[in-house]
Each structure stands twice: as C-alpha cells, then as structure tokens.
Design a protein that fits this description.
Blueprint: H1 2-61, E1 66-70, E2 76-79, H2 81-87, H3 98-102, H4 105-117, E3 119-127, E4 133-143, E5 150-158, H5 160-195, H6 202-233, E6 242-245, H7 246-263, E7 267-271, E8 277-280, H8 282-299, E9 305-312, E10 318-325, H9 332-335, H10 359-369, E11 374-379, E12 383-391
Parallel strand pairs: 7-9
Antiparallel strand pairs: 1-2, 1-5, 3-4, 4-5, 6-8, 9-10, 10-12, 11-12
Helix pairs in contact: 5-6, 6-10, 7-8, 8-10
The structure holds adenosine-5'-diphosphate.
Length: about 400
Amino acid sequence: MGPILTIVAVFAALGLLYQGRRRIGRLESELSLQRQLTKDLKALHDQEHSRAVAQQQALFNSMIEGVLLLDHDGRVQMFNQSLERLFGLGQDIRGKTIMEAFRLHELSTLVNRLQKEGTVLGNEIHLPGLEARCLQVNATAVPDRQGSRQASILVFHDLTRFKQLENTRREFVANVSHELRTPLSLIKGFVETLIDGAKDEPAVAMRFLQIIDKHTDRLTFLIEDLLTISRLESGQIVLNLQPTALRTIAGRVIDDLQTRAGERRVRLENRVPEKQGAKVDADRLQQVLFNLVDNAIRYGRADGTVIIGGRPGEAAGHVELWVHDDGPGIPPEAIERVFERFYRADKARSPEQGGTGLGLAIVKHIVQSHGGKVWVESEQGKGSTFHFTLETHGCTCP
Ligand code: ADP
C-alpha cells in the first residue's frame, strides 16, 4: 500500500505542480500582455503628446507676433521663431530669467508688474541697437498645469514699421504745410502792400502782380504734384500700356520745354534710337521725361546741353532711357536722397528755382509702376545723368 500511496501522492503533487505552473504561466503571459499594453499605451500617449507639442510649436511659429511663455518662477519655458527674430536671439534661452535672456530693464519691470497685476496690456518697449525696434507687449498670467501657481504668456507686436509710417506721414503733412505757407504768405504780403497804396504806382503794381502770379503758379504746381503723388500712391492711376515709340515721346517733351530751355540758352538733344520701343503708358512716360528734362534745364548749366538718350536695358526685356546735363552735378551726400519727397540738394536755392520738391518722387513712382528702376550718376562739376529702365513687355518697336 505504502509505495502505491507514495506514487499516487507524487502524481497528485506533480498534477498540482503542473496546474500551478500552468496558472503561473497564464498569469505571467497575462502580466506580460498587460505590460505590453501599458508600454503601447505609454508610447501612444508620448506620441500624442509630442504631436500636440509639435502642433502647438508649429502654431506658435506661424504667428507673426513673438510669443514667450514663462513658468511660475519667471523662467523662459517656450518661445516662438518670431520672438527669436524680433530680439535677434542667437542662443537657446530656455530656463533663463527675463533679465538673463534679454538684458532689458523695461521687460523685466513689465514681468514684475505682471506678477502683481495679472494682466499688462498695450505696453511699449524699445529695443536699442542698429535696427532699433518698438514693440507692443500684451501679457497675461495663466494658471499652470496644477491650476494654482501662475505661468505667464507675453505676446509682442512689432510696431516699428507702423511708427515709421506715422513719422513719414507727420513729416509729409509738416512739409506740405510749409510749402503751402511760403507762397501764400508772400502773396498775402504783396496784396496787402498793393492795398496800402502800391496799386497807385503802376510800375510797382505791375511788378508786384507778376510776383503774385509767379507764386500762384507755384501753388498750382504744388497742388497738381500732390494730387499726382496721392493718386499714384493710392493706386488710382491705372496704367494704359500701349506699344510706344520712345523717341516720339522724348521729342514731345523737347517741344514742350523748348521755350523754357531757350530762357537759359540750353540746347535740347534727342538721341533716343529710332527703333526703340516698349509697351508703356505714354502719358506717364512723358511726365517722367518732362520732370527730368525740366530739372536738367533748371539745375543744369545756362548755355549748356541736355541730352535724352536710350539703349537696351541690361536686364532682358527692359529698355533704358537717360537724361544727361552738363551742370554742376549733385553733391555725393544728396545722391541717395534726391528721390525722397521734398528733399532738395540745395535747400536755399531750389524753391526759388521754381520746383515743388516732388518731381523726382513722381518719377520714381511711375518708373517703379512700369516694373523699372531709377538711379542717378553725378560728378560734381561734370553734370548729372538720370537713368531709368522700363519693362518692354515683349514690344521692341511699335
Ligand atoms: P524740385 O522740385 O526741387 O526740383 P525734385 O524732386 O525734382 O524737386 O528734385 C529734388 C532735388 O534734386 C532738387 O531740389 C535738386 O536739388 C536736385 N536735382 C534734381 N535734378 C537735378 C539735376 N539735374 N542737377 C542737379 N541737381 C538736381
């Protein structure tokens, strides 16, 4: 009985062991399945998280405004590419304090205020340096992930261009007022003198009336030029591009200005090649050449020569025209600026020479709207040559 019992007991024990092993095996495989599942879930979560972070970063980077996220300690947690560009950051500033990252007192004062007030809107800060910038900052404190401590988000708008435009507009209004006031006060002065008795002396009265007439013309030209500039800038002038013989237009300008040239004994020459043509707005081109030749007569040498010339442009599909005078030339420091509105190389003499200060600004506008560019070459004492190019639009000869 004994050995049989032992054998049965051994088999039973083996059976139990086997079952136990099987259960352990099952448990183990369940456990490893669960582990795998957890791993997969974590990988999925990580993937989703990195995708969300990448999406958030892409969203931030697509913004024109600079965005800066500070953690509850006021250290940089995240920033976008616009912010990097605005501040010209050359290094990773994550983990740094505002002062360490930007070295700007204005900004660190703003962050201190933000921590006390919760929101700071419309604050302007100025970035010094070669390319000085003016930024508007809107900042707000936001609860962090735990919902208790505060993180901060700062949004920076670049106002530099807007401020520049505002300045240009202010300068323009000041210039226009000045240009209008000068002839108006002269006219008023002469009229008052006439009323006070000068009208009774025919010779004096005639001289005064001629002066009044001259200044009235000046006002009219100024207003005409202002209207032209305003129409050009607001895009109201639509170019009527037609195949045009450039020599013909140069000839018309010479005819129109012959009398004025005669007053200074200036010879006008048309050297634009016969066969040179382009698809242009003929009236506008005439205005460009008129302004350039008119200047050449006015600022060039009395008894001198003014030449209008032409040749194929250096860039394919362009022609180049030029107006040359043999006058005193333009000082080097004025060369870059003569195309600015109301800029005058010789501030004392130009207004009395009859200009409005807008002639070359109009030239530049019209040339650029024809897809061309304009520039001047000048050597003092040797004259000036104004060059400009025009797109031919495939037209070589009308
Ligand atoms: P303005 O009405 O004063 O002539 P413009 O815009 O036509 O205004 O010209 C701007 C300035 O450029 C002029 O005041 C003058 O000082 C200078 N300038 C223009 N053309 C010439 C030239 N051919 N020679 C010398 N100076 C010139």
